[in-house]
Amino acid sequence: MRRFSISFRRQGVVTPEPLETDLVKLGILTKQVSEFTTDDIGKVDVSIPYNNEGSGISGPIVFEVVGVNHHTTAEHQKTITLMTKNIIRKAAFDAKEPNNTDSMRKTNGNNRWSVSNIRQWLNSQAAAGKWFTAQHDYDAPPIPGNVYGEGDVAYADAPGFLAGFSANVLQHFTDITNITALCSADGGGSETTVDKVFLPSNTEMGLGNNSEGSHLSVRYPDNNSRIKQLNGSDYYYWTRSPYPVMKSSLVLCVLPSGESSFSHIMASSGHGIAPIIVLH
């Protein structure tokens, strides 16, 4: 018996192109992730195309290798941790929450990473103005009236940060389980989140041990190594770590000198962001 193979083509249906799974072929990396070693830390820049009109960020984004197999998962044991070489924009960590019964969060924003505006925005692919969803009863978006500083501090109308990367690249972003401290107003201790994009912790930057991951010690051994710039000048940038004692709106940041700020950095202030991603 002769066998026949019959195929059907549905009119008007377009089959999507398969994703390119090789970051070397995409021109993102010069070698495979598994070939990176600690010798590459602080010496290799990774330029990733970025096209996201309205995000306040001009592409490409230049990252640098700050860790090798530092952030891993059960599925992905070979990874490279990338942090932006410099600050990519200013943004509030979290907006004022006008209806919050906590007076500090009412006027200065919330220092809890898990519910922060900046975490939600960094991990969103949503279209302009569509990324914000309230994370708790008092949550509010970072519109101009809810943040301090110039207009570039607000970003409620921006598209989600992830919207600027291609699907080819996004498939290599690793979901990382992060530990972040809680201030005493939230009961102290710590909590975990799963993030594709995240801000560094105070611990990861070598600015104190709050048991929030481990120090990226090869790249950030001292104050000078931690300095990052915005538009050519040394500038402040956020960590994801809260001020530890009864200051429910204060967030720790890295000063222009590379030192840690331990007070008076309100979540609704406009400081720089230098996010981290982990490629596998």
Helix and strand layout, with pairings?
Blueprint: E1 45-48, E2 61-68, E3 80-84, E4 89-92, H1 103-108, H2 117-122, H3 167-170, E5 176-181, E6 190-195, E7 197-198, H4 223-226, E8 229-230, E9 233-234, E10 237-242, E11 251-254, E12 260-261, E13 270-273, E14 276-279
Antiparallel strand pairs: 1-2, 2-3, 3-14, 4-13, 5-6, 7-14, 8-9, 10-11, 11-12
What does this structure look like?
Mean pLDDT is 92; it is low at 1-10. The strands form five sheets. A five-stranded antiparallel sheet has the order 1-2-3-14-7, with no helix packed on it. Strands 10-11-12 form a three-stranded antiparallel sheet, with no helix packed on it. Strand 8 (229-230) and strand 9 (233-234) form a beta hairpin. The chain is mainly beta and 280 residues long. The protein is built from four helices and 14 strands.
What keywords describe this structure?
globular; 7% helix; 280 residues; 3-stranded antiparallel beta sheet; mainly beta; 4 helices; 5-stranded antiparallel beta sheet
Task: Give a nutshell description of this structure.
The chain is mostly beta strands and 280 residues long. The protein contains 4 helices and 14 strands.
Distance between the termini: 49 Å
Which overall shape is indicated by the principal axes computed on the Cα atoms? globular
Evaluate the radius of gyration.
20 Å
Mean pLDDT, all residues: 92
Q: Tell me how many strands there are.
A: 14
Low-confidence stretches: 1-10
